Automatic annotation (TrEMBL):
Residues 25-280 form the Fe/B12 periplasmic-binding domain. This is ABC transporter substrate-binding protein. Keywords: Signal. InterPro entries: ABC_Transporter_SBP, ABC_transptr_periplasmic_BD. Pfam families: Peripla_BP_2. The keyword Signal applies. It comes from Pseudothauera nasutitermitis.
Length: 286
C-alpha cells in the first residue's frame, strides 16, 4: 500500500471516531479540487465532491468519488450543505460571493494551479493544513518525491545524450511552453519541451507553419475525451501535419488526469518515460 494511502485509509495508525469528528467538514466544487480532497481527506469529513469527479472518463478516482454525495458547484448547494471548508478554484471564487459564504461560517480555500513540482508540494501542504490532514499531505509529498527521483537515473558520463525534443500538441494546435505544468511533466519524463526551447512561455497555440518549419523529434498528445478542442480539430487533420506525424515517434497519454496541476502529474510523467523506453526497445527512432 502506498504511504499516503496508508495514512488516508488509517492503516498507519488507528483513527478514533473522536479524531475524525474533530476534522473540518469539507466540500469540493471542481474536478481538480476533488482530486486533492479525495487524496488527502478522511472519508468521514467529505461532505460532497463535484459530479464530474464521479465520471470515469474524466477522473481515475471516479470509483472513490462515487462513495460520496455529489454537487454541481452552486453557492446555494454550499450554503445548504454548510461545510466548514470549501475547496474551489479562483474562477469559482470569483463567481460567488465570498462574503456571503463567510456570513454562514464557511471558509473558501482556493486550490492553486502550480506550474512546477515545488509548487505542487506547496499546494498539497496548503490543502492538508486547511483540512486538518497534514500527515496525509506529507506522506503524499514523500511518495511523489520518491517517484520523481526514480525518473532521474544517472546517464553514463562518457555517453551523454541530449533529451529528445518533445512537442505537446492538442488537436486544435494548443501547446504549452515554459512555466506550465506540461513543461514540468515533460522534463520529469526526461524530455525537452520543444515549445519552451523555441521561446514559448505559458499556454498558447502553435501555427501549422511553425510546426512544419521547426518540427519536434517527438509528438505528445493526450486523449482528453471531453476536450472541446476535438470539435475544432482541423489542425490535426491537415495533410502536412499528418505527414509530419507519420515521420516521427509519438506518445499519446491514455488517461484524462493531467488537466489538473497536482500530484497525479507524476503518473503522466511515468507514462511518458515508460513509453519512450518501450519505443527505444522496439527500435523506434531516437
Amino acid at each position: 500500500m502506498r504511504p499516503w494511502l496508508a495514512v488516508l485509509c488509517g492503516a498507519a495508525l488507528p483513527l478514533l471516531a473522536t479524531a475524525a469528528d474533530a476534522l473540518p467538514r469539507v466540500m469540493s466544487t471542481n474536478l481538480c479540487a476533488d482530486i486533492v480532497l479525495l487524496s488527502l481527506a478522511d472519508a468521514a469529513q467529505v461532505v460532497s465532491v463535484s459530479a464530474r469527479s464521479q465520471d470515469p472518463a474524466r477522473s481515475s478516482l471516479a470509483a472513490l468519488a462515487r462513495r460520496h454525495a455529489s454537487n454541481d458547484g452552486t453557492a446555494e448547494e454550499v450554503i445548504a450543505a454548510r461545510p466548514d471548508v470549501v475547496l474551489a478554484s479562483r474562477r469559482w471564487q470569483a463567481r460567488h460571493q465570498g462574503a456571503l459564504l463567510a456570513r454562514h461560517g464557511i471558509r473558501i480555500v482556493t486550490v492553486p494551479f502550480p506550474d512546477d513540482w515545488p509548487g505542487i508540494f506547496d499546494s498539497t501542504r496548503k490543502i492538508g493544513v486547511a483540512i486538518g490532514r497534514e500527515a496525509a499531505a506529507e506522506a503524499l509529498i514523500a511518495e511523489l518525491e520518491g517517484r520523481l527521483a526514480a525518473l532521474r537515473p544517472a546517464q553514463p558520463e562518457d555517453a551523454p545524450r541530449a533529451p529528445l525534443r518533445a512537442l505537446y500538441l492538442r488537436p486544435n494546435g494548443g501547446t504549452a511552453g515554459a512555466k506550465t505544468h506540461v513543461d514540468a511533466v515533460l522534463r520529469a519524463a526526461g524530455l525537452a519541451n520543444h515549445a519552451a526551447l523555441g521561446g514559448r512561455v505559458g499556454w498558447g497555440r502553435a501555427s501549422l507553419e511553425e510546426v512544419v518549419a521547426d518540427p519536434p523529434e517527438l509528438l505528445v498528445t493526450s486523449q482528453m475525451v471531453h476536450d472541446t478542442a476535438y470539435a475544432r480539430a482541423g489542425f490535426s487533420r491537415h495533410p502536412q501535419l499528418r505527414a509530419l506525424a507519420d515521420g516521427r515517434p509519438a506518445l499519446a497519454l491514455a488517461h484524462n488526469d493531467w488537466g489538473c496541476s497536482n500530484w497525479q502529474l507524476i503518473e503522466a510523467a511515468e507514462e511518458l518515460a515508460d513509453g519512450r523506453r518501450r519505443q527505444a526497445h522496439a527500435g523506434v527512432a531516437q
